[in-house]
What does this fold into?
Amino acid sequence: MTDTAVPATIERLEEVVIRFAGDSGDGMQLTGDRFTSVSAAFGNDLATLPDYPAEIRAPAGTLAGVSAFQIHISDHDILTPGDNPTVLVAMNPAALVANIGDLPRGGSVILNSDAFDERAYAKASLPGDPRVDGTLDGYQVFEVPMTSLTLKACEPTGAKPRDAERSKNFFALGLVSWMYTRPTESTLEWIEKRFGSRAQVAEANRRSFLAGYNFGETTELFAHAYEVRPASLEPGTYTNISGNTALAWGIVAAGQLSNLPVFLGSYPITPASDILHELSKHKNFGVRTMQAEDEIAGIGAALGAAFAGHLAFTTTSGPGIDLKSETIGLAVSLELPLVIIDIQRGGPSTGLPTKTEQADLLQVMYGRHGECPVPIVAARTASHCFDAVIEGVRIALAYRTPVFVLSDGYLANGSEPWLLPKVEDLPDLSVPFADGPNHTLPDGTEVFWPYERDPETLARPWAIPGTPGLEHRVGGIEKADGTGNISYDPTNHEHMVRLRAAKVAGIAKSIPPTDLDDPTGDGEILVLGWGSTWGAIQQAARVLRGKGRRIATAHLMHLNPFPSDLGDVLRRYPKILVPEMNLGQLTKLVRAEYLVDARPFSKVKGLPFTAAEIELAIDAELGDPR
Amino acid sequence: MTDTAVPVTTKKDWATDQEVRWCPGCGDYSILTAVQMLLPELGVRRENTVFVSGIGCSSRFPYYMSTYGIHSIHGRAPAIATGIASARPDLDVWVVTGDGDALSIGGNHLIHALRRNVNLTILLFNNQIYGLTKGQYSPTSELGKVTKSTPMGSVDHPFNPVSLALGAEATFVARTHDLDRKHMMETIRRAHEHRGASFVEIYQNCNVFNDGAFDAILGKEVRPDMLIPLVHGEPIRFGTDNGKGVVMQPDGRLRICDIAEVGEDALLVHDETRESAGLAFQLSHLAAGPHEPTPIGVFRAVERTTYESLMQDQLITAQQRSGPGDLAKLLASGGTWEV
It folds into this structure.
């Protein structure tokens, strides 16, 4: 808690959803990140949703240039970044009108009144002042001249007005920090650390932050401050983590757990580049990162490194998967471990690079020529990305196969508190390299056959260059079973196609049963999900169960192969609803596989589901009156 | 790796039991023989040798070498080989490719492997035709080439592979041909010795789809007058009685002339170690195609730190700065709190 005096009246809230919105040059993501860190350290449970335009700097003041960051903080465990904000911080008219529609009437709007003038209305293509045309009817509006107060606060630093003005996001952060009784120390320390090398900027930010905080405290504009107490989470050590950081750390961890050097071949692409950035910071773990000339070379180099005995990864988004597909096919044929991480974004083509979607499922399942099975693992929350990559590596190493790990734009940039695992509890992922002959010819000669299989996993040996006596050639041409020599024999080809399929299907033996949650045991509907829809589905189920509905949920981490009991689970329920951020891709798969009447509930707006949307959809599916 | 001496091997030790399936009379056979004869002389181990290829006739090469090998996908061999070489600097990595594989579908990977200076020995078999797909023109086919896909003649200007490699700032660039085993072996030996990406264009005859493409310069009778051997530190001269040479004109352009006319001292002395690739580039353009006097040998051989050694250095520096990786420390590095 802060030492600074707080007003006498502090209203306690269970939770609050704040959306910071401004121009993409206004530093809203930074403000949101900072508020997140402070709230996480304070002990709130939280979930975040950054929402920003693909353009680095769209024209200032326009609707296209609005960048927003939503954070849900709570004194109990929460599952989503919140359906609707309760507080909107709007730095200009465009940010106000672009976001006000999501704020229920009665909510609070804090706006930068200095940014409301004719020029700004013109830039935002507004007919006039949105503060007086009814737009804000029914809201609690706080007008704060943030720009001029920031300029005044920065005067002693000697910063030019143009530069000083850029600190206004810190004013907003200070104000909101006061409103929600956030401690100030850690933000001040952070400003020092982040901007310390530029003394004037650091000082301007510090002064603006404190000016915002003090403004809240000393003016009578706000009747009282609010408090969201720490959540009672499972005991342990927590950190706040985004999905992409969790993936990068999962990669580092998998290298340690398998005793293999890590190799990442990658090409910059939104929203996956942060994994490459994060991993590149950890070369002291022996991690090699290569920014390749293109997506194809990224996976090509990774596959080469896998052949050479490294734990190989490639990271990308949908357009990159398009380009990597041929090499994934080669990896299936070579039967080498390789983990392909796809941070899904809106498609087709360039689509919505900064927005989320789950529409690559059928692509990763089927998007290659020939019979070309690849296991698929999907993460459900930001921190679960860590577990997903470790599970992907386990499968890749044990079965010598490329594996997809799916995340999406929402998980990639969103963050949540993560109960840190104990390193000693993490699984041992190590597998042996081949070190000698594995086959005896009829004449008794001991030989090495590169495609002789482990009878249990059907994995072939991983024989790496540098091992004398195991020299062998692999390639994309069909191989004879066992010897791995080129074979055009029709019977052998069918045999190999079936072997590769059986190997991937057999992974089901090593994965846990369906993650089913059916509190009453007789659910009237099963809500089946995968990936990042988890939070919204769980929240919706929680609300409906509170109203007496019997809701079962099942969430899939393994999408190829499915858990062995999935068919039995699905057949137990009279109705199956599958919320997906696509037009029904998992729905198609389970219908085809199990002949069940699963119904899709689709949303492809580039934004995650809200819990309320899923609640309504379940209601509609159940149909009967309560 | 062991400390024991590299075992003595013969050509036979480097061959596999797989039947070689190139067309009878293909130039690839003589290249395979040259490489298999050369390897025993290089003091390398089979288990530390990796051949990587793409797709095309030449790309069958790894199946015939008793080393580690990958017959990969079209055009991608330099990318895959880059991964192998940068993961495992202890390995001896070769890329075998063709004019379509390296210069058409895989052009991007080739130039980037060269500019990065990955320690690879790249052998480009140039037969100026697509053989495996049965005879379409390639990116090195001469303008107007009549093939199945270009019945009225091709309308695209060809690449000069040596010029392209020099343009990509390759540190070792050479050319040889499939009819001179000694020259091939010496050129490939030099390429292998070189630390970094070495690029060797090998003129190779496709006797089925483009027979005689190099006859104008490689025919027994014309060869002395049509091949210009490049020898480091020597004046550039050729011809039946060594009577012709290359001079630089006052305007900076290169010209072939009779030594009798210009005198020995006027000849350009070949220097493969020149930092600028400019003169080597000019030499690569001396002939407009393999029908004019054509330089062979090493165009350029300069030292530059390799990609994988720079990568390796960063890992060492990172360890010195931050100590060996500690997973628990990493997981706590973003700031933690206790509940």
